Amino acid sequence: MDATEASRLAQLPAEATVALQDLAASIKDGLMAFCCSAGLVVVAQLMEEEMTAKVGPKGRHDRERIATRNGSAPGSVVLGGRSVLVRRPRATKTSGGEVQLDSYALFSDRDLLTQVAVERMLAGVATRRHALVAEPIGEELERVARGDSKSAISRRFVAATEKKLAELLSSDLSGHDAAALMIDGIVFHECCCVVALLITADGTKIPIGVWEGDTENTTVVKHLLADLVDRGLRFEQGLLFVIDGGKALAAGIKRVFGKHAVVQRCVFTSAGTWPTTWRPSSPGASTAS
Fold first, then answer.
1. How much is the pTM?
2. Which residues contact 217 (CB under 8 A, 6 or more apart)?
3. How far is C-alpha 5 from the geometric centre of its chain's CA atoms?
4. CA distances from 216 to 144, 185, 186, 222, 244 (A)
5. Span 236-260, average pLDDT
6. Quick one: DSSP state of residue 111?
7. From CA 261, how far away is CA 123, in angstroms rounded?
8. Which of 33, 34, 257, 280 has its CA 20 to 30 A from that of 236?
9. For the segment 66-103, what is each residue's pLDDT rounded down to a tens digit?
């Protein structure tokens, strides 16, 4: 929940209470089950209190009412990493249209499901096993809960990673005190990607880009270097570029950054040892002898 959502929820008029005796059965299923059962009660109270604040209490005639209650409608909220079916109060405005409940919008937001899916995928949980690693939420809620299918989990993961990639590729670089930039091609399942890693003056490493292609592809090189400049990469005080042997990349750096660029081919081996034909003149040095 971000600050905006928390602020919106805090402004709701509800003061929800939970009758513990009504939730006693869920305690035997564990803490998560109890919390989800309690959460479902709180959500229902929040929605009802908000509806009362917006259209008035049930069964009370009001000539100046702005909306009319229309019972309830099916809906779902996110609890325990699942989508749980609920009944949400419903009302229609006298001017037309349905009354929107901020509380329902907040608790039915699927962003949390996406976050859970991404965390499990990054932890190596296969899409078909997500339901097996979920914490129990109690027998009653399990009956009205809907677990995501394998395809739904895949769609959530793709959507979330696409969003994160878009944020990465559009991030502002002008605020970084750039000292060095490492660019290399990495192969993922027969697909070559060019990755850029920025190193600031204080040694902080910041991934700033990934592009499909290779460092010998002139079009890819032109695009990635132009993108870095457009995003505000500061290089007026000089910038060290550590690259592979791609000639197109080396030529592109010199053409775009000119005298401000110092190009060094990466000679550090994958085993973590310095080649016998080259040694740094001092710790952290980057100039070949």
1. 0.56
2. 248
3. 16
4. 55, 10, 13, 11, 10
5. 89
6. H
7. 39
8. 280
9. 888 888 999 988 887 788 888 999 999 988 889 999 88
Q: How far are the Cα atoms of 209, 213, 222 from residue 218, in angstroms, in the given order?
A: 17, 10, 6
Element housing 256 (H / E) = helix 247-257
Pairing state between β 178-188 and 239-243: parallel
Q: Decide which of 3.20.20.70, 3.30.420.10, 3.30.70.260, 3.30.70.270 is the CATH code for 172-265.
A: 3.30.420.10
In degrees rounded to 5, what are phi and psi of residue 277? Answer: -90, 0
Question: From CA 235, how far away is CA 252, in angstroms rounded?
Answer: 15
Separation between Cα atoms, residue 212 and residue 3, nearest integer Å: 35
pLDDT digits 0-9 by tens, 103-139: 888 888 888 778 888 888 888 888 877 777 777 777 7
The candidate with the shortest Cα–Cα distance to 84, out of 63, 57, 113, 62, is 113
CA distance 135 to 110: 18
Q: Give Cα 134 distance to the centre of its chain.
A: 20
Q: Write the CA distances from 9 to 48, 60, 198, 281, integer angstroms.
A: 14, 26, 39, 60
Task: Write down the domain spans for the chain.
Answer: 3-164, 172-265
> What stretch of H or E contains 9?
helix 3-10
Between helix 111-122 and helix 150-170 the angle, nearest 10°, is 90
Q: Which two tokens stand for residue 139?
A: 């027998």
